[in-house]
Amino acid sequence: MLRPETRARARALQLLYACEITGAGSVAAAGGLARLTGPEPRVLDGAEELASGVLANRESLDRLIQGAADNWRVERIGVVERNILRLGIHELQVGQTPPKVVIDESIRLSQWFGGTKTPAFVNGVLDRIAHTLGRL
To answer: The domain containing residue 42 runs over which residues?
Structure first.
């Protein structure tokens, strides 16, 4: 059984993906998330809060990714990987969750939703950013 926080992160990633693919500028515009989360409002509320925070700070998050991802332009990083990084950086900046937990959860998301090389890439970028932010 997954913790509600882990499920909220996965749902936030799915919501961010939907926003990027459809061009929706807000969590509400993407819609339909409640059907994915099931009856537990804590998961839905957590997912919407995380996704809204990422969408509100997308440009600054992308600048951090650009600085930490050697030889990669943000627009060339896959949609899933880019949103996992944005989500992880947002959580590092908020500081409510220990940085090692944020990185571990981001790696877990990348194992579920990304390609075979995604976990190592996500780990490397988030580790560098956590050090840059002084969180590690």
So the answer is: 4-132
